[in-house]
Amino acid sequence: MRVVFAGTPAVAIPGLDALVASEHEIAAVITRPDAPVGRKRVLTPSPVAAHAHALGLPVVRAARSDDELTAAVAAMQPDLGVVIAYGALLRAPLLTVPRLGWINLHFSLLPRWRGAAPVQRAVIAGDAMTGASVFQLEIGMDTGPVFASIERAIAPDDTAGSLLDALAEDGAQLLREVVDALAGGTAIGTAQTGEPTLAPKLTLADAAIDPTETLDRVSSRVRGTTPEPGPYVIVGGDRLKLLDTRPVDEPAPAATISEREGRILLGVADGALELLAVHPAGKKPMAAADWWRGVSAESLVVEAPA
After folding, report:
1. In angstroms, how far is the first alpha carbon of the chain from the final one?
2. At the N or C end, where does the chain have fewer CB atoms within 10 A?
3. Are 5 and 105 in contact (CB under 8 A)?
């Protein structure tokens, strides 16, 4: 089949590679426009755009599914459209341009966690299980029938980043199997059942750590917002980013940071989070012990999120 692929971040690359390695033809790769990156705000291609160029694939940059993109895709005469984390909703009439419509590799067990941040929300919520689903795109957000899915347990040390990377690899093979089944006319979509939950894109507020919560809830939020937008606490009115942490099952004064036998501990309701690496406001990332040596206090109060 002739396939149009839409994706933007690095987690979409394994799925693209799986299709490139298949017998299907990639007519074009659609991705978001180049974006400013770093302090100098240098315009930089998306990871998918850079990878597609390296593979010699045609690349179309589009911020939305407007008439121009619809006409461009129609001219390719694709049999199928495939989406992985493109970053914008595909709308009618683009949805009906490919002969078989569009399918989406989504990193959740639908209908749980429909939306932009399914893995992050699953980790924050303390879910025991997540997975990946390949489903038919409809006008509604992530509402279409599911062709196939896989499950994956969420380990205690999984972060949103590590879990997304694993699901991207596992989901790539699942995606290829569904595309092959669609080509052979054997794919069967099943209507979603169960209570839907929504997974909106994370904001900076989602990464704020509340030191009055339990260790399980604090740890889940830390892991669910790592690496982006990055967990943090408020100390002295400034954000202290938590780059590397470890939960410890021992008492410590809640809502404070203190030192104990060389370890830097953030006390929460029923335990503590050991801080291993931090990024203080206006400074470079550093080991938590190095940061603490510059603190002229026996303990620091951690403010509750606004």
Report:
1. 52
2. C
3. no
User: Does residue 198 carry a pLDDT above 90?
Assistant: yes
Closest CA relative to residue 263, chosen from 292, 304, 230: 292
Check: CB of residue 71 under 8 Å from CB of residue 59.
no
pLDDT (0 to 100) of residue 12: 98
Is the Cβ–Cβ distance between 62 and 33 less than 8 Å?
yes
Continuous segment of H or E residues that includes residue 216: helix 215-224
Residue pLDDT, tens place only, 154-174: 999 999 999 999 999 999 999
What is the C-alpha to C-alpha distance for residues 12 and 16, in angstroms, rounded to an integer?
Answer: 6
Contact 31, 66 (CB under 8 A): no
Quote the distance between the C-alpha of residue 158 and its chain's center. Answer: 13
User: Which domains are seen in the chain, by residue range?
Assistant: 2-184 (3.40.50.170), 204-303 (3.10.25.10)
| Digit-coded pLDDT (tens) for 106-136 | 999 999 999 999 999 999 999 999 999 999 9
Mean pLDDT taken over the chain: 96
* Identity at 67, one-letter amino acid code: D
pTM beyond cutoff 0.90: yes
**Alpha carbon distances (Å) from 263 to 27, 241, 278:** 55, 17, 13
How far apart (Å, rounded) are the C-alpha atoms in residues 91 and 73? 13
In the three-class reduction of DSSP (H, G, I as helix; E, B as strand; rest coil), residue 77 is classed as coil
The better pLDDT of the pair 305, 207 is held by 207
The pLDDT assigned to 249 comes to: 82
* Dist CA 267 CA 257 (whole Å): 6
CA distance 116 to 199: 6
Q: What angle do CA 56, 59, 62 make, to 5 degrees?
A: 170
Distances (CA, A) of 234 to 103, 205, 208, 272, 291: 42, 11, 8, 16, 15
